Predict the 3D structure of the following.
Amino acid sequence: MAEQSNFDIVVVGAGPAGLGFARAMQGSGQQIAIVEKLSESVLANPPEDGRDIALTHTSEALMRDYGMWARLDEGRIGTIRDAKVLNGTSAFALNFDARKAGADYLGRIVQNHEIRRTAYEVIKDDPHVSLLCEAEVATVATDAGGARVGLADGRRLHGNLLIAADSRFSGVRRKMGLAADSLDFGRVVIVCEMTHELPHEDTAFECFHYDQTLAILPMAGNVSSVVVTLPADRAEQVMAMSDAGFAADVAARFEGRLGAMHLSSPRHPYPLVAVLARRFVGHRFALVGDAAVGMHPVTAHGYNLGLSGASLLAAEIREALERGGDAGDARALKRYEAAHRRTVLPLYHGTNALVRLFTDDRPPARLLRGAALRLGTVVKPVHNRILNKLTEIEGHVRS
Ligand SMILES: Cc1cc2nc3c(=O)[nH]c(=O)nc-3n(C[C@H](O)[C@H](O)[C@H](O)COP(=O)(O)OP(=O)(O)OC[C@H]3O[C@@H](n4cnc5c(N)ncnc54)[C@H](O)[C@@H]3O)c2cc1C
């Protein structure tokens, strides 16, 4: 039988959340193993995947703290100063202006593969982190003696805590018997980047047309991230359109606001399935990132929640270590679960309700969303609460 390797923490998944957790633990002295099925050369140079990630002020601050921001090309980072929500052909728009929250901008936009690259770079030379790449998890178990992970190649790992950071379809979560509820929207999101004739003026648009949703997010220069959400049975047809045909269709749906538009990246389709684990922790076991909550991307919270959750879990573990406990300390895990669920639940259910309202074409829903947009604009406290959440600067919105 292969010899057992001992660590303090075993993380499965070297995505943005798993790597973010390892970075948040830096300096704690804990020995961390990260098991990842991809090769290390892919982690060092992740392929472009079409996802442009809208980041809150909190995520930007964490990425600066972790040394990730300094490794990004500033010239390629987008800035959202203003966001507008448009409803069908109605001229009525819900408007979020960063200046009203006393902030210079609502958020920043960075390509997902750049987030992955920088997350890898800040842990790769850490002597306390062992990356076990091209490895498959075969068995997992935890008990009073610790957490045990068996790899498909026969290697055996032991730690005080096991963390699943292996995506919304987490195999480790399932193997550990933690149930999750999933919601298949029957829709597909197609993402890409496009150049355009006219400047976007750092404004993000979410346009709810009756058959499909179009989000246009400002990248650096005359480039935007384009997110088209449509019923799954139409996605293949849209993916089969020529680049020029697709670009002309997006420009027309956006009513020429950005002038002529051209594709500047491949199109990537993602099926839309939201997932919420019923518990975020078990005995010597915790979920982080999408393994805990896989959000619908319309409100751009997935990575933001993954990063803040990973940093929260790391802070609780550090406190437990100071109290003389170990990384699997039950009280620390419970506190992480309680605090993270308080943040996650309203966002998860709120996002799903918003998606249902804005993708329902029946007349009552059309009426209701018109009313919801008006309510958001006219009723200041509602509007201000949304704006504060975007900038995460509490109490700063001027009425
Ligand atoms: C189109 C789109 C747009 C988005 N836009 C935004 C946005 O604007 N803002 C935002 O905050 N979020 C956004 N998100 C969400 C964000 O991309 C995710 O929340 C984030 O990538 C999740 O990170 P993760 O590390 O939890 O999981 P993942 O990125 O899925 O990484 C999981 C890792 O685990 C590895 N793995 C899986 N199974 C195993 C196994 N059995 N053994 C070993 N390794 C394994 C995988 O190879 C991978 O490296 C968007 C998502 C999509 C699809």
